[in-house]
Amino acid sequence: MSVLIETTLGDIVIDLFTKECPSTTKNFLKLCKVKYYNGCLFYNVEKDFLVETGDPTNTGKSGQSIYGLLYGEEANHFQDEIKPSLRHTRIGTVAMANKGKNLNDSRFYITTKENIDYLNDKHTVFGQVEEGLDVLEKINSFFVDSSNKPLQNIRILHTIILDDPFPDPQGLEIPNQSPRFKKSEQDTLFEADEDLDKENKNKSKEEITEMIDEKAARSRSELLEMLGVLPTADIKPPENVLFVCKLNPATESEDLEIYFSQCGKVKSCEVIRDAQTNESLCYAFIEYSTKEECERAYLKMDNILFDERRIHVDFCQSVAKVKGRGDHFKNFLNRGKSNLRSTSTQHIPSGTKGYDFVFDDDHNRDHSSSSSSKKIKYDNEKKSDRDRRDDRDHRDYKKDDRYSNRDYKRDDRDRRDDRDDKHYSSRRNDDRDDRNYSSSNRDRRDDRNYSSNSSRDYRDKRDDRDDRNYSSSRRDDKNYNSSSSSRDYRDKRDDRDKR
After folding, report:
1. CB 429: neighbour CB atoms within 10 A?
2. Where in the cell is it found (predicted)?
């Protein structure tokens, strides 16, 4: 008694222990027969432990047995059939994933490890994987998230009963064909059998690069559509218009048209000019009657010498002149401003490093004369206002200048008076210093003379006194020798002088 389970990674064949576990195996076989397991995910993959499935809600919290389907919710759970001879000893052991004792329904698991004694006597073992262990190993090796759910969907696609020994119970409805699988909108994961690189299969590197560039261009077009620049992302530039750049500023549209007409009929040729200064911006657009003429001109005219300039020719990538497309572009540039004055052909700076955008409005072209007259009137009014403002500023300047000259003269006079006062005060101080210096010199000179006279008087007095003393000593000391007396006298005088 066996069941073939087709999964997204391969086939698994399970042999059932119908004699040891009749209720459990009957429940499993009849659920396979009514295609109950079709589309179920392997929602719990614990590496080197087990893989779990059998819940149509793919949450691991629900499931119905065949008895619940036939007899109602009261009969949903059935008894355990735990046998001592059936243990978790081999890889590929199939057992019921119950919610507790005697609470079996539709969920089951397959072990990916040998000798898991922890699960013995808790879960009913009712089968063994005999074929497809390599598929089981693939499931076991899948990457999972924090809740052990695989990051790619691994599903049971079909269940095929190879041998069923149990008769069908009364009221069992067997579908004629497997139900069509429909993926839920909330399910955002890729399927395990989905080829994520199928777009690049059997393609060269150049083809893959071209495909990537096309996707990038499509993304840019959709962005411009969201910004309001393009009416639709599918819009394409015209195929019969050439873009010519690096022109000589002196080149006129008529000269360019005559030269490019040798490749075909030129419907229009326009050198783009600045809206304010009317100076050439050194690039132009040339429209041909057919695409073939445009391609011929591109091949012949690119990189030629025209008006002493080496010009560059390319296919036009602008959709500004496509009929009925100009309003979207102008609305994007105006940003809601209604006071933008534009002529029939207006140059709008784009702020990019490349060439600026140009648009041509048919409505403005029809009313170019009125727009020009309004612009001239507006410029004249601005010029008159500017002249009046300049006159008023000039009068104010002259008035301010008169007052400023008067203040300057007053300030100059005050500075001159201050300078004279300072000079007079300086002279007075110098005279006073000279007088004081002369007086001090005179006093010092008098003091010096007085000191000299005093010294002279003192010496005279001392000599007189010495003479008197000497005479007296000679009278008193007649026995002394004159030399000794003189020497003694000198010594005494020196001592006296020192004191």
Report:
1. 10
2. Nucleus
State the Cα–Cα distance between residues 159 and 53, nearest whole angstrom: 13
Beta-strand ranges (E) seen in 330-486 are 345-348, 357-360
Indicate the residue type of 175: P
- Pull the structure tokens for residue 1: 């008694």
Strands (E), 63-145: 93-96, 108-111, 125-131
* Token reading at 71: 């007899």
Coil, strand or helix at 135: helix
**Cα–Cα dist 225/262, whole Å:** 38
pLDDT computed for residue 334 by the predictor: 55
Tell which of 161, 187, 210 closes a domain.
161
Distance (Å, whole) CA 277 – CA 119:
90
Q: How far apart are the first and last CA of the chain?
A: 155
Tokens standing for residue 79 = 């008894």
Are residues 116 and 156 located together in one domain of the fold?
Answer: yes
Residue 400 sits in the same domain as residue 359: no
Answer yes or no: do 85 and 30 share one domain.
Answer: yes
Q: What is the mean pLDDT of residues 109-118?
A: 93
Gyration radius (Cα) of the chain, Å: 60
In total, the chain counts a number of residues equal to 499
Q: What is the pLDDT of residues 163-207, one digit of tens each?
A: 889 999 888 888 887 777 777 777 778 777 676 566 677 778 888
**Contacts for 72 with CB less than 8 Å, ≥ 6 apart:** none
238-263 confidence digits (pLDDT tens): 889 999 999 999 999 999 999 999 99
Which residue reads 């015209």 in tokens? 238
C-alpha separations of 306 from 244, 289, 300 in Å: 11, 23, 13
What phi and psi, each to the nearest 5 degrees, are found at residue 135?
-65, -40
Beta-carbon count within 10 A of 167 CB: 8
